[in-house]
Amino acid sequence: MKRLLTLTVLLLLLSCDSNAQQDNRTIGIPDDFGKVKPKKAEKKFEIKDSIINNVILIEKEKVFTNGSNFLIDMPIKVQKEPIIIFNNDNRIPVELFFERKSFLYGQNEILLITRDWEYYESLREDERNTPGLHLIPYVQNKFYHIKRNNKSYNVDSLSIRMDDPRKPITLNFIKPEFNDGETIYYYADGYGSICCPRDKRWDYYEAIQNYIKLFAEKNNIKLENTRSVSNGEEGEHSSFYSLTELTNEQKLLFIQEIKNITGEKFPQIHLPITF
User: Fold this and answer.
1) C-alpha to C-alpha distance for 129 and 131, rounded to whole angstroms
2) How many domains are contained in the chain?
């Protein structure tokens, strides 16, 4: 009996050790364009509504890219409530929407919708591998529920057939609304106190101003529609540039070169702002 009890204990210990080894195996983590890794979502979300209103549509014609960074020529205002966005440009990596530093910094919660590109590509692959085969796809979208805080973000996702006869889902799009008299600015630059304590961004001030001057001279333009707002008595101020003299490709170059000066060399989605 004692030997049987001892054998049972040994088997239990071996089982626990085996489970511990399995739990400690290295798991590959995809590149998320930053050092902060997303936390695993605690609970799967679901789409309960058959009609989804107030969806902001990002059309491919509104997107400009240099291959790694993107400019969406459409302001999207931050709000307390979740924002619903449909991105119709598959050139933009979906991961760029996840983190604050790469898209719409002040927005805490986003419902991002895209075409289910993997689903459509799988159908095309089947057609390529089977001559004469022609498949009629469903309307299939991918939903990403993004929740952010100051340190990290959670992302949960699911793929949904939008034209399912048992529960079809309709998206109602809106155009972002702006108040009369608001101006669109494509680049904004802000500085805190120059002394007490000193804002580290002042370390780049001279280099940024020199770049702006050289950029204007090189392109034979004058950046006239600018605005400066004082925020304090110790040099605090913000500067806003409409960049109306530039093409969208030039705007993206202008913004990205300044980001490189300040060390922000990670991929980003840039948006104009209004006020």
Assistant:
1) 6
2) 2
| Alpha helices, DSSP H, located in the chain | 2-23, 117-129, 205-218, 248-261
List, for residues 184-234, the tens digit of each pLDDT value: 999 999 999 999 899 999 999 999 999 999 999 999 999 988 999 998 889
Residue pair 69/260 in contact (Cβ under 8 Å)? The answer is no
* Mean local confidence (pLDDT), 235-246: 94
State which of 111, 144, 174 marks the end of a domain: 174
Residues 6+ apart with CB under 8 A from 163: 138, 139
Residue 68 lies in a domain: yes
Q: Are residues 164 and 231 in the same domain?
A: no
pTM: 0.81
Asked which of 106, 140, 174 is the last residue of a domain, the reply is 174
Any idea which residue has 């913000």 for tokens? 238
For residue 52, report the phi and psi dihedrals to the nearest 5 degrees. -115, 115
* Same domain? 63 vs 153: yes
Strand, coil or helix: 218: helix
More confident residue, 272 or 38: 272
Containing structural domain, residue 225: 184-274
Q: What's the CA gap between 73 and 63, in Å, rounded? A: 6
